[in-house]
């Protein structure tokens, strides 16, 4: 997961921007009148999120007597997220926040939309709350769906509030096969509390990261197979290992817990791969001498 700074605007700005774009004056007034209830929920969210206790937020079927969960969802889709609406700029501030447009939930795919960390169907009072809105790729958004955490362990990671630090926790393993098989998993640092370890494992499984990273690793191996064969042919296993260690240093310097860092560490540490495994990578013939 990639840490992100939270949005710089609060619910009041999002509500007013939406209301200003609603032609139905009664609906616009109802939304403005719902702001106190929305801000109460926002303050509760701010109090619970830093300690990883958002599962304690109260679920409700409506925001006020005039604003139901269904109506709030309609306001979000037709106004806050709609292209050309007065509030679309706020939506875009959230969507475009990650570096290079990469999804903070998987660290791999491109952001496609904004996801509600706590689903708007169960927490309509948080539909327009900026700190509940997280940029996400289509797959992570789909995988997460409208899951409601029943306890701390079932909460996915929150890019605005969860900090996993720089200590290594994402690891990979090379399994001898033709082609080599790479698997990914979690190695929690000793400083992590049990709840955080459970949450990372839950996030890893919910977002399908083991499968995603394994597929990307297979593609990466195919991409580097010709170079490894060239290095191995001239410098042998020690040359292959030295090359992989340089690649590891480069990846780790940028992100200690990227799947590429984990991959190159596993490859460099594998005697089998450095001696013969790199020859087992199946790839297309190189078209040039």
**Average pLDDT for all residues:** 93
- Any idea what the radius of gyration is? 23 Å
Helix content: 40-55%
Overall tally of structural domains? 2
Query: Widest sheet: strand order?
Result: 1-2
- How far apart, in Å, are the first and last alpha carbons? 41 Å
Give the SSE string.
Answer: HHHHHEEHEEHHHH
Strand composition percent:
5-15%
Task: Explain the overall architecture.
- Helices cover 47% and strands 7% of the residues.
- The chain has ten helices and four strands, in the order αααααββαββαααα.
- The strands form two sheets. It has a two-stranded antiparallel sheet with strand order 1-2. A two-stranded antiparallel ribbon has the order 3-4.
- Strand 3 (170-175) and strand 4 form a beta hairpin.
- Helix 1 runs antiparallel to helix 2 (25-33).
- It starts with 10 loop residues before the first helix and ends in a 14-residue tail after the last helix.
- The mean pLDDT is 93.
């Amino acid at each position: 997961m990639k840490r992100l700074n939270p949005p710089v605007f609060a619910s009041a700005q999002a509500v007013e921007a939406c209301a200003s774009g609603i032609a139905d004056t009664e609906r616009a007034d109802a939304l403005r009148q719902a702001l106190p209830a929305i801000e109460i929920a926002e303050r509760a969210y701010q109090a619970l999120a830093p300690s990883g206790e958002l599962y304690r937020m109260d679920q409700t079927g409506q925001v006020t007597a005039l604003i139901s969960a269904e109506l709030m969802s309609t306001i979000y889709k037709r106004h806050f997220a709609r292209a050309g609406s007065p509030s679309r700029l706020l939506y875009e501030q959230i969507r475009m926040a990650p570096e290079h447009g990469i999804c903070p939930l998987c660290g791999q795919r491109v952001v496609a939309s904004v996801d509600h960390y706590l689903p708007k169907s169960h927490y309509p009072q948080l539909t327009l709350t900026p700190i509940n809105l997280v940029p996400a790729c289509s797959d992570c958004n789909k995988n997460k769906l409208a899951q409601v955490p029943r306890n701390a362990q079932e909460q996915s990671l929150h890019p605005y509030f969860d900090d996993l630090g720089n200590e290594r926790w994402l690891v990979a393993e090379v399994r001898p096969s033709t082609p080599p098989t790479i698997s990914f998993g979690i190695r929690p640092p000793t400083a992590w509390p049990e709840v955080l370890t459970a949450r990372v494992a839950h996030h890893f499984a919910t977002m399908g990261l083991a499968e995603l990273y394994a597929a990307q690793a297979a593609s990466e191996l195919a991409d580097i197979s010709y170079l490894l064969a060239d290095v191995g042919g001239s410098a042998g296993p020690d040359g292959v290992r030295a090359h992989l260690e340089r690649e590891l240093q480069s990846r780790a310097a940028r992100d200690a817990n990227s799947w590429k860092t984990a991959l190159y560490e596993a490859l460099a540490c594998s005697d089998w791969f450095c001696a013969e495994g790199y020859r087992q990578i199946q790839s297309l013939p190189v078209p040039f001498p």
